[in-house]
Write a structure and sequence with these properties.
The complex is a heterodimer. Chain A has 17 helices and 2 strands. Chain A is mainly alpha-helical. Chain A has one domain. A two-stranded antiparallel ribbon of chain A has the order 1-2. Chain A is globular and about 65 Å long. Chain B folds into 2 domains: 69 residues; 78 residues. Chain B is 68% helix and 0% strand. Chain B has 7 helices and no strands. The longest helix of chain B has 23 residues. Chain B is flat, with a radius of gyration of 25 Å. Classes of the chains: A mainly alpha, B mainly alpha. At the A-B interface, helix 6, strand 2, helix 7, helix 14 and helix 15 of A face helix 2, helix 3, helix 4, helix 5 and helix 6 of B.
Amino acid sequence: MMAPLFSSKLLIVLIFGTLFGLILGVLPGLGPTTGGALILPFTMTLDPLSAIVLLTSIYCAGTYGGAITAVLINTPGTPAAAATCLDGYPLAQKGEAGRALGMATVSSTVGGIFSVIVLVFFAPVLAKLAYEFGQPEYFALAIFGLTMLASIGEGSPIKNLIAGAFGILISTIGKDFMTSIDRFTYGINELSVGIGFIPVVVGLFAISEMLTQSTLLDQVFKRVALKAVKLPSLNDYKKTWKTILRSSGIGSFIGVLPAEGGTVASLIGYSEAKRFSKEPEEFGKGSIEGIAGAEAANNAATGGAMVPTLALGIPGSATTAVILTGLIIHGVRPGPDLFREQPDFLYGIFGAMLIANILFFIFGFFGAKLFARITLVPNKILWPMIFAVSVCGTYSLSQSIIDVWIMLFFGVLGFFMRRFGFSVVPVIIGLILGELVEGTLRQSLVIFDGNWIMFLTRPIALTFFILSLIALAFPLLRSKKQKN
Amino acid sequence: MNNVRNKKRANQSLPFFFKDEFKVFFVIILVSTILLVTTFTFDKVPPILNRGIQPATFPKGLLVLIMFLTTIIYYLSFKNPWKKEKKLPKPFFLTILSFIFFIVISKTLDFFLAISVLSIFVSYNWGEKRISYLLLVGILFPLIVFIFFEMILGLRFPPGIITNLYYY
């Protein structure tokens, strides 16, 4: 499994990716999704395995990096670390920042490694199952993935569905892939090839965040002092080992579900840790179990989210949507055939994720103090620099200035979407699933001779449709239960 | 005095067309309607060649779905009004203005110059007044990025008054 990684080049890529991911995770507003999108053009100089190793190591380390800011300045570096703030910061305020970060580091590493094991065993099984899938099954699966957007945790379910549908709509811009008829091009030649994924991702994440930061200039962060990260004590381990394992399981499972990611996983991991705790009253006041529950779950979601991404080509989260784009750009088509034809490539990714988890443990343990200092870089210096990289990165993929303008448009749009409670993640998932949804629907209708009812005669497709209905009903039931 | 006035203003019930809920509803419905009308202008595949659905059918379905869901969120907002957002501060509008500058300069003068102007403009308006730092974000960093993309990725930036000096 590790054989392909014993090359100095890949190890350098891994170390760089882990360090870069940590920096991105630490900086509020950035994160592995934006970072992955920004670095994607640079991966063109690498071979496919190195490129994906770079992206996955950024994913693993970036997810953990969010905990450092969550604990020290009460601001999650990534959305997935939001639940870590609840107990991490209160514990740091009590003068135990080192203990809080130590627990976050250990539980993130355990969660991450657990999820890689799940990935290694579960992805090939799912890929084998995918051999049974035809066009109708893939259509039903994609619909299931989209309906899961209703419960991604950020924003209202209906707003998430609107954003998802909007993402699919963007994917229809350009020449229709079956008939070559122009759609929504308005006579602009550049639009006939469609709208690229990178301008949309960089716009929705980096540029919209730049606009958000422009509204927060008077915000002052109070940073808690950190002497050194401490390994958890034996007593802490006794108190949290069950929570860490439970949250690792929850995180991996949530990660496997299409479109769900670390944010939902950490929230559920945290609430389950509270439910099973002998001291639930301590939660929110600096509970070590709270930190363990949230951090193990969000890092466990990384490996879980890679399962549908690699086995089915359906992204498990926003960052895996970027990784999926990286795979496609490098000519690797995810799906069952990948497992049969390129096992070395896959095991290289699995091994890289495993090593990335160990690396961020080492870097986090010894370098958290240094990484925390990155938050001291003022926004007035940082964001113009991020803008320069965003513009050049977006331009570089197709060398088109139109792409840069599209990025700016989506930046402004993303800002207003977030302002009015629409999450931008569903747009990304919708955009990447759009072609699959439309393509499989139209090909299925050709197979079925236009008879829509035939979808219900396929047992796997029918199962996914039922799951889709459950996914749609779940947020309604949850809000009713909360009201009661 | 201003605070009292602001509070009063917040407590007043605004006419429906001033509320965020309506503005969002209106914009989504308007844009969706325009796009829906556009779908009727798409070329059609002749019946003899048509397999499955017409190219316009799928976007039409999506737009109808978006309009339907938007109507639901607007209806639900009567029961649960959205929280009132704070007024946007001056730096936000200046940042948007810098984007417009960027588009104009990159189109007419130079791509690299546009990045520099935006970086200095944004940094200055966000509070950075030290010349050395402004030069760092406006000249040195974009230059490093430019050279990095040019040398490592072999990227050729669009021609312009400054970029041409480098290429010729």
